[in-house]
Structure formats: structure tokens, C-alpha cells
């Protein structure tokens, strides 16, 4: 029987960590912000791995309107999990929109794809598209996001920051990609990959940051 992912995750966490409290809210993020934002306001940290620009842009705007009184950590992977990103948005500095274009595409990417058709494969007969990577490759990214979340809770992160995991060059090449020009320009000694780096997030120059300053 199919179950809501939020409820399923909460149920698993209750089993794995019986000493903790885990509540599920089986609604989309937009509804959470509109109907039950009080729950988010009482949180010490929000971690977003939705991969949905419409929802995450609204979460970002909500955080800006509140004056960024709590940190929000965003995590995402690049195609084929050849790179992963964890961004902490805190008070001061830029918000999430500052580092992405108006459609949610990050300005800084580790990989470049000469053949965009290599980004996804199509299953025969059914028309479904997928990227061939699994929990092993994704493990680097989830660890990256989890560590940044812990650092935020422990007060080690006070300014917006951007942490990146870049896979080994062999994995990048096998997937049909190459290092992006910006990666080579900023990290010329790390073209073998298999590394994690931290860089500053862009300054607060977007419309959302400007609006929050006026408010």
C-alpha cells in the first residue's frame, strides 16, 4: 500500500530513534507556509531537499520576510550525482535567490555537459526518464548536507555558505561530463575530483533581499 513520504519517514524515524519526537505534515510546502507556518517559526533549523524551485523559492522568500531568524539549509545534486551542493542561508549576506537564476538553475555548477542528452536516459517502451546513480553516490551528498545542518545547529555557521562535493574525475568522465569552466577557474588544483570545498555564497543583491531590507 502506498503511503505519504512524510508520514513514512516519520514512522521510520520513530522506530530508529524511539527517544525522539517526529511529526509528519503530509502537505506540499506551499500549503505548510500558508496554513501552518507557526510550526516552521518554532523550528531551530529548516532543511530543504525538495528539488522544487517553486516551493523552495517561496520558502526562501518566507525566510527573508522573517528577517532570517533561523537558518535554512538547501541541498541538491547535479546530474548523475557527479556533484552535490549544500547551502546554508543565515542572517546577513545573500539569500537562495542570489545564487540561482529566475528558473532555479544555480549560477555555479561543477559539471558541464557537452551532450545534454547524456543527462538522463529513457526507459524502453514506457517513456520514463532516469539518471543512473544510487545510494552510494548519493551518500556523499547526504553527508554533506547533514554536516552543514549540524554545524548550523551548533552555531558554527553564522554567514551564508556553500559547500560542494565533487566526484572523482573518472566518474565525471564516465557520465559524459567535464569540469565546468567556473570550477576549473576557481579550483585549478582540484581537477582530479573526489574533494569537498567551501565557498562564500553570493552577496544579497537580488529582489528578495532588497525587499526584506526595505521591510
Describe the structure.
There is one protein chain. It is built from eight helices and nine strands. It is α+β, with helices and mostly antiparallel strands. The chain has one domain (43-214).
For the structure shown, list the relevant keywords.
215 residues; 8 helices; two-stranded antiparallel ribbon; alpha+beta; five-stranded mixed β-sheet; 9 strands
Short account of what is shown:
The chain has about 220 residues and is an alpha+beta fold.
Rounded mean pLDDT is: 88
Radius of gyration over alpha carbons? 18 Å
Largest sheet features: 5 strands, mixed
* Residue windows where pLDDT falls under 50 for at least 5 positions: none
- E-strand count: 9
Total number of helical segments? 8
**Order of SSEs, N→C?**
HHHEHEEEEEHEHEHEH
Portion of residues in beta strands equals 15-25%
Termini separation: 47 Å
What's the structural blueprint in terms of helices and strands?
Blueprint: H1 5-16, H2 29-35, H3 37-41, E1 46-48, H4 53-65, E2 72-77, E3 83-89, E4 111-112, E5 121-122, E6 129-130, H5 135-153, E7 161-168, H6 169-174, E8 178-179, H7 181-186, E9 193-200, H8 207-214
Parallel strand pairs: 1-2
Antiparallel strand pairs: 2-3, 3-7, 4-8, 5-6, 7-9
Amino acid at each position: 500500500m502506498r503511503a505519504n513520504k512524510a508520514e513514512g519517514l516519520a514512522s521510520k524515524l520513530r522506530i530508529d530513534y524511539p527517544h525522539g519526537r517526529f511529526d509528519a505534515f503530509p502537505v506540499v510546502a506551499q500549503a505548510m507556509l500558508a496554513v501552518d507556518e507557526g510550526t516552521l517559526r518554532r523550528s531551530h533549523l529548516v532543511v530543504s531537499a525538495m528539488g522544487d524551485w517553486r516551493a523552495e523559492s517561496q520558502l526562501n522568500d518566507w525566510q527573508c520576510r522573517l528577517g532570517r531568524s533561523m537558518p535554512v539549509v538547501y541541498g541538491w545534486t547535479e546530474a548523475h550525482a557527479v556533484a552535490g551542493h549544500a547551502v546554508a542561508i543565515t542572517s546577513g549576506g545573500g539569500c537562495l535567490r542570489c545564487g540561482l537564476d529566475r528558473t532555479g538553475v544555480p549560477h555555479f555548477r561543477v559539471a558541464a555537459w557537452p551532450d545534454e542528452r547524456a543527462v538522463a536516459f529513457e526507459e524502453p517502451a514506457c517513456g520514463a526518464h532516469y539518471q543512473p546513480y544510487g545510494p552510494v553516490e548519493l551518500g556523499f551528498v547526504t553527508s554533506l548536507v547533514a554536516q552543514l545542518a549540524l554545524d548550523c545547529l551548533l552555531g558554527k555557521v553564522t554567514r551564508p555558505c556553500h559547500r560542494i562535493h565533487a566526484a572523482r574525475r573518472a566518474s565525471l568522465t564516465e557520465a559524459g561530463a567535464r569540469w565546468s569552466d567556473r570550477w576549473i577557474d576557481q579550483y585549478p588544483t582540484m581537477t582530479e575530483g573526489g574533494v569537498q570545498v567551501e565557498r562564500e555564497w553570493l552577496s544579497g543583491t537580488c529582489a528578495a533581499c532588497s525587499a526584506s531590507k526595505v521591510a
